[in-house]
Amino acid sequence: MGSDEAIDALIRTFCVPGKDKILTCPPTYGMYSVSAQVNDIALVTVPLLLPGFSLDIPAITAALQSDPHIKVAYLCSPGNPTGALLQKSHVQQLLTQNWNGILILDEAYIDFAPEQASLAEWVAEWPNLVVLQTLSKAFGLAGLRLGAAFTSPPIARLLNAIKAPYNIPTPTSQLARAALHPHHLSVMRTNKERIVRQRDRLLAQLPRIPGMGTLHGGTESNFLLYTVLDAPGGRPSNEVALAVYERLAERRGVVVRFRGREHGCEGCLRITVGTEEEVDRLLEALRGALADVYNMRKEKEASAVVA
């Protein structure tokens, strides 16, 4: 099940159902709350600070120190859907807290971030840190459902004790070993560089499309979070963003993610970076979908005036 299995296993290891809690910082990956709900664990949320989607260290600290039932805190870096890296100094501040709990750092998209961005090496220094990574993103092997949890030996022993006896099939392990061979690592890095180039291209081209707003997150992942406006030069609009999302999927066969209902993401679409051909298609489809939505809104307004 990839990193999702580790997310669930950590809750089952450290939280008592009906009693303990986890902490998350929205907007963030949805499986943290799903796993908490499945395991009857309450959820405490401390939203990321705007703009920039940074950690609210004072608020997180207050929550951890005031509630002894918070046993696990989940952070996502680069964030999903924010695409922004968390500041290392902020993570370090949380690790130094006098708190009897486990800090989970989900680095599913870390391969798209700059070199030395990962904090996986920190598990050797901080015994209450767990860093999650996966083969699903930069390696393009989501179908393998294989992730990894890097942590201290005591926590590793606990996780190994509760996992299913044969949770990784032999074909999965063989394909994973092949993916980590130096030759295939080189292929992954080449493909990643292509995605980064297309990410830079989107950063240059998206603002030129009438109706697209500004980048609303970071640039350290393989997706970008952009606002959609109620009119060219206008304000972010959930109504228009949702209409564009539906128009792209239903009429043009292009799927993006509508994120307007999440904290701090009004009018936002999360746009995944693809190949050069896919980006060509996206830019054309997005321009057309926005034009269609604006024309429909104008026609609706005109008919309302006539009526």
Can you give a write-up of this model?
With 307 residues, the protein is α/β, with parallel strands linked by helices. It has helices at 3-14, 31-38, 57-66, 88-95, 153-162, 170-179, 182-205, 238-252, 276-306; strands spanning 21-24, 42-45, 70-76, 102-106, 129-134, 147-150, 212-215, 223-228, 257-258, 268-272. It has two domains: 3-175, Aspartate Aminotransferase, domain 2; 192-306, Aspartate Aminotransferase, domain 1, CATH 3.90.1150. Strand 7 and strand 8 (223-228) form a beta hairpin. 39% of the residues are buried.
Features:
single chain; 307 residues; alpha/beta; Aspartate Aminotransferase, domain 2; Aspartate Aminotransferase, domain 1; 2 domains; four-stranded antiparallel β-sheet
Under CATH, the topology of the largest domain can be stated as Aspartate Aminotransferase, domain 2
Number of helices: 9
Radius of gyration: 21 Å
Strand content: 15-25%
CATH superfamily of the largest domain: Type I PLP-dependent aspartate aminotransferase-like (Major domain)
Largest sheet: 6 strands, mixed
Question: What order do the strands of the largest sheet run in, or round the barrel if closed?
Answer: 2-1-3-4-5-6
- First-residue to last-residue Cα separation: 56 Å
Class by alpha and beta content: alpha/beta
Number of strands: 10
Strand-and-helix sequence, N→C?
HEHEHEHEEEHHHEEHEEH
CATH 2nd-level architecture of the largest domain: 3-Layer(aba) Sandwich
As a percent range, the share of helical residues equals 40-55%
Shape summary? globular
In the predicted model, the low-confidence regions spanning at least 5 consecutive residues are: none
Query: How many domains, as an integer?
Result: 2
